[in-house]
Design goal:
The chain is mostly helical and 212 residues long. Helix content is 79%, strand content 3%. The two termini are 51 Å apart. The relative contact order is 0.11. About 3% of the residues have low confidence.
């Protein structure tokens, strides 16, 4: 019997007992049998107490279930946010191939590198704000720390390249490209790990962020 059925049963029992006690013929008969009347009243009281206790317990269980559901969803959203940051690191690093491709000899547009630098800075700042103490698996913590650790060297290579901008607004991005490939390679396994975890929890994450 489900919870609503139990509540109806106990409430019905208490109501029947109350009707019996309140019914004039029954009340007169119970008055001549004082001990039986006491038993009936006791049973009614017990039924009312049990019904109240069950209702309180059910309310508590529903509250606990809702709290657990909210905690699960909040944690899934946090993993999704971390995944987006790790994925963003990978996507930004992968852009260098597109930036270099139009120009010969490993040159890249300084304007494009400045855009890349701004994006890397934004990702780094967001990673700095992730509370890794909320993550319950070491690999998730690693995903944040490792992604954040590779970005300063990436920024350094971009800055070095920008210091050598020529009069055409181009610069040698060979070292930036090498560092970008390294960054993409380092964060890729963590992105795939996060993607698997999020999918297992029924969350939302783009599966094409990290190509096989």
């Amino acid at each position: 019997m489900n919870g609503l059925g139990m509540l109806a049963l106990w409430s019905g029992a208490a109501a029947v007992i109350a009707l019996i006690v309140g019914w004039t013929p029954a009340s007169a008969w119970l008055n001549t049998n004082a001990s039986l009347a006491g038993w009936v009243q006791a049973i009614g009281s017990i039924a009312a107490i049990l019904a109240t206790a069950w209702a309180v317990d059910r309310a508590h269980r529903l509250q606990k279930k809702e709290a657990d559901r909210k905690e699960f969803l909040d944690y899934t959203r946090m993993l999704e946010a971390v995944f987006q940051l790790v994925g963003g690191t990978h996507r930004i690093a992968s852009k260098i191939a597109d930036y270099i491709a139009p120009l010969p000899d490993g040159l890249a547009s300084a304007q494009n590198l400045r855009k890349m630098r701004a994006e890397v800075m934004a990702i780094r700042d967001a990673l700095d704000r992730v509370d890794v103490t909320r993550l319950d698996r070491f690999h998730f913590v690693q995903a944040v720390l490792v992604s954040n650790a590779v970005l300063p060297d990436f920024l350094h290579e971009i800055d070095v390249a920008l210091d050598g901008v020529n009069i055409e607004g181009e610069c040698d991005a060979g070292d930036v490209a090498a560092k970008a490939l390294e960054v993409a390679s380092v964060v890729q396994p963590f992105g795939k790990l996060l993607l698997t975890a999020i999918n297992q929890r029924g969350g939302a994450a783009r599966s094409d962020t990290f190509p096989p």
